Amino acid sequence: MPLTEPHDDHLPQEDPVAVDGAVGDPDNGDTPADSGGDPAVEPEPTLPEPVRQRIVALTATVLPTLPADEVPVPLRRVAKFAPNRRARLGAPAIAAQLTADPLFRQRVTARVLADAGDLGAAVVEGTAPAAADPVEVAALAYLARPRGWRELIDASGAAVRAEADSAVVAELVREAEQRATRAEHDRAVARVEAEKLRDELARVREELGQLREESRQLARTLRETQTRERKATELLATERGRAARASADVDAELRRARARLAEAEAAAGVARASAKEARSVDDARLWLLLETIGQAAVGLRRELALDPVDKLPADFVADAFAEQPGTAPAGPAARARDTDDPARLDQLLALPRAHLVVDGYNVTKRGFGEMSLEQQRKRLITGLGGIAAQTGDEVTVVFDGAERMHGLPPAPRGVRVLFSRKGETADELIRRLVRAEPAGRPVVVISSDREVADGVRRHGAYPLGADSLLRRLARS
After folding, report:
1. 3-state SS, residue 108
2. In terms of CB atoms within 10 Å, which of 244, 297, 390, 425 comes out highest?
3. Is-contact 399 325, C-beta < 8 A?
4. How far is CA 289 from CA 278, 280, 292, 295, 440, in A?
5. CA–CA distance, 199 with 384 (Å, rounded to integer)
6. What is the Cα Rg of the chain in Å?
């Protein structure tokens, strides 16, 4: 087979140039060593870039398959590269060795032609199949260098250039078609825009006609308005004359009213002086009446032999309807605010012999519910003791209780502490306390429960919200 690799024992006797021209063709571009004189070596042909890249790729593929001693020293490191890096990074070294070392090129050619099969055989014979890739043919021809290999490379270059020119022409045709398509699209868009502009022009003309008609109507309306304005101006001048006359009449009437007012103020001064004298007489009569009533009351108390009492009505209610205190608080009832003004509470406590009744847990859970029940009771009872000491009024605080309690601290002086018995709520006990009081005695009930407030109000008591007592205690 042509371009076979020579045996190693023959390499020293062979001229490298002769080995390179092993095909035996005197026209293959290499001059045999025995032709006499210095061989006239032709320069390497200028390879098209695709052909050069294919030659490097073929060499890089077969490079690792060569024995280590057959690989030129500059390419031994390249042979160890990864396949995807070998042709890219070792291209300059591979091209240089293929040009400078014919024996290395011949060894590469033998393996490349073996892999190429029929195409390699055809190229060695100096023919190129019509359907073959011209780049592949040129690469094999460069490596094998059969008869007419330069013509094959030139034909391949011409084919590559023709393909490049065809690609350029195809690209130009494609661009021309794209420009034609864009031009057609632009014409269609322009046609649509022209139709829109014609429609817009017709609409503007129509609106212009309407505006002209409206302008004529506005001009007519303006003339009518100007006519009405002249009439209104004349009417305004007439009304101004009337208003001036009416103003003069009002001024005269005002002066007369001021004169009458001065006379009325003088009469009022005389009346106030007379009323003051009459009030002094009434005060004297009232004092005499109250003195008479007081002496009559003293005489009546002496005649009836009424001694001071030790027990008050609330004490009787406590004895009849309250047992020992309990520990379980009742569930929260519906709340209702009456008034939370501490000044109102002060006014009611200032009444003589007032009785203050407090719904205990209703106040403590609203004011300091984060404490335990024992601490709530102690804090409220201590505060009520201060109010009793300040006002001297009777104070009763009522708690819900269903079980017996032991170890309760003594209540402050003037404060009565009651616990409802089992089956009875503090609300019911409060209503019993209010009903037990005589008519006319001021009873103040502190609770934000609407039912309690409504119930005690019907019996003549004064219901106040829990906040009024809390504010009063905070102020103390």
Report:
1. helix
2. 425
3. yes
4. 16, 14, 5, 10, 21
5. 92
6. 65
Tell me: the pLDDT tens digits for 68-116?
A: 788 888 877 887 788 777 777 777 888 788 888 888 888 888 888 888 7
Can you tell me which residue has the tokens 């590469």?
108
DSSP-derived 3-state class of residue 337: coil
Amino acid at 116: A
What token pair was written down for 86? 């070998």
Which amino acid, residue 471?
Answer: R
Please give the span between the terminal C-alpha atoms of the chain, in angstroms, as a whole number: 128
Give the containing element (helix H, strand E) for 249.
helix 149-304
H or E element that contains 41? none
How sure is the predictor about 44, in pLDDT bands with cuts at 50, 70 and 90? confident
Which residue has 């609770």 as its token pair?
447
CA distances from 14 to 69, 103, 453 (A): 18, 10, 134
For the stretch 361-417, pLDDT in tens is 999 999 999 999 999 999 999 999 999 999 999 999 999 885 556 667 788 999 999
CA 161 – CA 279 distance, rounded (Å): 136
Beta partners for 443?
355
Residues 102 and 3: beta-carbon distance below 8 Å: no
The owner of tokens 């934000």 is: 448
Are 106 and 70 spatial neighbours (Cβ–Cβ below 8 Å)? no
**35, two tokens:** 């032709």
Q: Is 318 exposed, middle or buried (0-12, 13-18, 19+ CB in 10 A)?
A: buried
DSSP 3-state assignment of 419?
strand
Give the C-alpha separation, 145 to 138, whole Å: 10
Number of CB atoms found within 10 A of residue 143's CB: 24
The amino acid occupying position 243 is: A
Structural contact between residues 447 and 430, judged by C-beta atoms closer than 8 angstroms:
yes
Backbone angles phi, psi at 36, to 5 degrees: 90, 135
- This prediction has a pTM of 0.36
Cβ atoms < 10 Å from Cβ of 93: 15
| Single-letter amino acid, residue 403 | E
